[in-house]
Design brief:
The chain is an alpha/beta fold and 580 residues long. 37% of the residues lie in helices and 14% in strands. The protein starts with a strand and ends with a helix.
Length: 580
Amino acid sequence: MARVVVIDERDRIAEMLVKRLEETPCVEVCQRAPQGEDGFGGLLSDSYIGLLRDLYADTVVYSPPLSRSMTPDLTDAETVFQHCSRTGIRQFVLLSSAAIHIPSSNHPGHVSESRLLSRQEKGMLANYWAELESLAVLYFGDRSETRLAILRPAAMPFPGGADYFSRLFTRRVAVVFPGYDPSLQVLSPEDLASAVARVVECGAEGVYNVAPDNVITLRAALRLAEAKRLPLARVAQCMARAVLAPFRLAHPIDQLEYIRYSWTVSNRKLKRELEWTPRRSSVEALRDFRVAEKGYVRSHNLPSLEFDDYGMDRQYIAAFGRTLFKFLHDRYWRVEVKGLNHVPREGRAVLVGVHRGFMPWDAVMTLYLIARNLGRYPRFLIHPGLIKFPFLFNFHTKLGGIIACQENADYVLERDEMLAIYPEGIRGAFSLYRDAYRLGKFGRDEYVKMALRNRAPIIPFVTIGSAETFPIIGKLNWNWWKRHTEWPFFPLTLTWPLVPVPLPSKWHTQFLPPIHIEHRYPPEAADDAATVRVISREIRGRLEETIAEMRSRRKSIFFGSIFEEKPGYEEQMSYKERMN
């Protein structure tokens, strides 16, 4: 039976933790440590140490107080670590924060506990949480007899809270970055208490993310919180905060990064190892917070739709599909399609294409084509540079773009969705026009490994004509530009950058028959470099043959058809028309 002491300066959270732990069968007694004006560290020499001894406590749950800059108080934390290590605590549960994963354009979404952050990704706030965890490991590491469990809860607003998100969702006006509507996770305090109780019950150790199963977009969250959005550019916000910071009227600017890019963590480890399941969704947690804070929530402000984990918005796609995308596809580029029947109507698949023209309009047209005719929404693996800037972030995430990595590919294919990838990467898109129809390197053939591990067929496809929209005739090796955009160089085209309008070239897209590698190889073949190379060469060969054949038939960049027969009625009619 555990005897627990809870050290937390947040009254509501501490009371909830104590109550939940007292209800846990394995807990004999649980009390909250006394709180002093100078933090818990100021009481360690008498009442706090006395409480540990009087209770014969063997378990401590600790949440560090926040400093004036909303960072964890490391001095207080180290004092607590020192005394608890000397007292011989059996289990120490540290409530850290998912803020250790600071968002950036490289943030893949739903990150696991094992993901390490590079220096470029770490901000001031994340560094403090990382140092807090390092201190805990120093005192309760491998040589210690104390089991250390570190919990990283997602954003958790609570009534009366002084943290960033508690204030964000209680103010009438919320200052945001223009052009960014990221996905957020909002954790219920009840779920945090439940997770802590489960960790104590299991005597667990290790690092665990604590997060709900689903997300809410920033715009919807602020609407639910009845807060008006005030978009301000970063420069203006930095200037305002320099004036307001001495009066404690504004949070540090790096706090806003958590509402700039999508900031989500995976709760898979906690669910898998400890069989813990969150009970409240992000929408429900935020609604409960507003009810506790205001006493009510206006029903018409409740978002009724489910939110995609990575920000895809089918209504957004449909709206553009009726206007801009339809005009570009049918009138401006006059896209002709062949082989659409090779794209499956259901089940997982990996689309592998050739991307040309540094603006990703070929991907957009492919998405529009498949959504309109098949009712499916392929998710493209994209380069971080595409979501680094305002409005481009919204555009690409709402169209279903996700950062290219193995975890995101698994997420898509495990749900029997369609994954789309351009294996040449960003350098293929930035090929000079003289090399536009020569295939470059396919990287490390990761797309083959993704398909093998998830037992998905590969469907090659080719678009001819997109390279002519922005034909790259020169490049500037501009270090500042490369550093801020993550592009390989500054492209020069016939219209870019003076008149950034794509040329009205004639497009042709052809989908090739699927390659069912899932029937030929087991998932373990993904670890066999020779097998992966064989598959990649086969796909590359098919793409090269198709490109050469299509180009040999093309008589003009701007006019004419290259297919022997125009696409049949069955290929052009919409999915809804066929169903009717």
